[in-house]
């Protein structure tokens, strides 16, 4: 008999652990895909020749997709089959990842701007004599008519970035049910004391996702975008050049496949489970234990609301939606946590979106010179061309012509330019006046500073992550049982609407203001930025992040003081109740009447 009684418990535990492992893998998969998307921002910007502000809109499309369905998924999804909804979300995320990679197969080979490889006549002397006093750039500088521009844009597929926008939006829609439905399902059927440990396990596995995502992004960024379809020996740039585009599309196929695999276990999980470690007869005591713990956070008027049992219709659910929202936002702890998360996520999203660009521009570029001077006045150089060359004095010039180079030897990546007059102006007479293709590398001290920066970033990330699980527990315990999924969904909705969509846009717009040299599209017009003012970029980027994180820390401090104050009030109230019972010898019924009479004299919200 005792053996049979243990079987349901073992089955329950095994299914709960299966759900835990599946949810952890989904967290890894979505973080893997999200981190790869962030690491590919620069590659996508260059491939479609678009500014950082538009890249911010594309990046924000993930939050836009989430915004479309989060409220309905969180509220109505809690009443439906939560594991299967998570599985459906994974399928949508995978489809979005594949859609992002689709433009690569529709576009032609990537053509980067260069004055060397764009010569149509093999006998032309333009690439051999970069600076020639009697040649003119007027033909190249002429602005084509509107019909020519339209035909060119149609041929080059300049609007293909819309596929990336829509694919990223699909990723946002598919990611919607994972957090609110997954965490609420886990919390509903696990012991209260086990929930923090389970959440820690999920986030620990999930945090590996960004690590692998950025590693994959770094690896594919060094592989040319058209690998397998072009002769790599004909490419005159390398992965350190600001015109280089890596094989960004391969990563989305890989991440989409991983997300697709993560959906499989959820199709075999039940709609509900018995409470972990509890027999059916003990379910009432478990519910009471949960309510007792939630009294530390819940307003008193909300403690009387209990989840109604029995089947409900869709009309009844819809009718109760607005009252449920009112109950939810009357909880001041929940509202203050939403505001705190909102500010912190603004800083985090802005940082994670443009951090790869920040590292590249601050720690990967050398001092440059995009200027006309006396040494190249007779060369009739185009200011639109971006074909950087590195001089032996460590200075990068925007093109061989602007460096005043007179002759060249070699072909492709091995091209060397000689007798560069502008280089001679900055060097001792008799020294090497040659330049090679590509931008100059940073000095050695930059690598040392970069390592310090990364070490500080790791320490900061560790300190920030320490508050993740406690924050989740406070959020879960501050709301009623029947509002749990709705609360998590509303948190995601608000934080991602105001904390996920705007930051990439206003960060990108402000970063564009620090651009020194804009690229030129094939069809004319301004393309992606090739070179930034490193000091202005640093001040803009770090200033925004520092300000937002400082404000969020102030709000966390206010939340902590509010919770401590509630704890003291609750302790005094409980002591008063005990003293009243001892003095009057009252029974439970009398105690309830006494509390009801004095309810208006105490704070409306319960305390910890």
TrEMBL record:
Ranges of residues in domain Kazal-like: 369-424
Keyword Ion transport on entry: yes
Transmembrane segments: 57-78, 85-106, 197-225, 246-268, 333-354, 452-475, 541-561
Protein name: Solute carrier organic anion transporter family member
Places the protein is found: Cell membrane
Presence of the UniProt keyword Membrane in the record: yes
Topology of the protein relative to the lipid bilayer: Multi-pass membrane protein
Biological source species: Seriola dumerili (Greater amberjack)
